[in-house]
Amino acid sequence: MEAIKTKIDLTRQGRLPAEGDREAVFEARGVSVFYGDQRAIDNVNIDIYRRLITAIIGPSGCGKSTFIRTLNRMTDLVPSARLTGELRYRGIDLYGPRVDAVEVRRRIGMVFQKPNPFPKSIYDNVAYGLRILGMKKDLGERVEKALRAAALWDEVKDRLKDSALGLSGGQQQRLCIARAIAVEPEVILLDEPASALDPIATSAIEDLMHELKRDYTLVIVTHNMQQAARVADMTAFFGLDVSPDGNRQGVLVEYDETEKIFTNPSDKRTEGYVTGRFG
Length: 279
Prior knowledge:
By secondary structure, the protein is an alpha/beta fold. The chain is built from 11 helices and 10 strands.
């Protein structure tokens, strides 16, 4: 605990806004997700705040990735998936019948665990979404702006026509972040964005997240406790419950400011997980 506390003290950039001054971007109330008859997460209640970094931590199989995929309706792409409860984005029911899932995913971008650049040029990777969405005005300027925001421009500005597949793993991940940023989202979801990267590339991604939160709300899933302590303002710990019929389901155990989660958690299950005694 003390080692993690030290990391928090050394890296925290200013104090968080007081609880009453935070603006909720997402409000989840009683959210459960099912795959067929199997409940994956149960009765999640959480507010996620504007221009903060929120980390989702917990053991494998507790529904971390399932939860963040509800935030931009990626769960829609799984035929057996269904959501109950209420999930609001800026006061709007994300799963309402008149809500366009494509527009949801433009406003709420996503970066996956493994870098997934398209087999196209660096330029065309970033321009892809802009062209699909008809955002073609000042295309070159938009591409440059996104690459700069992803701290990649200086490394690729002289080879924009080269294949993105020739970039290093860390560069590919920053390219995927640039691709997400290019279409002007308000939120960026990151599902284990550095788990496939070496320590140097991981550090670059973490530094980038601190820069991005000036303009975006970020939600990150991570198994790395030190990473959550380094980058997150708020942390949600998901655990596993076993239902009477023997099925396991993810539950939100505790959600608070990151420093409190790692130094003075309210729930013994949280303390056991962050200190490595279980999970």
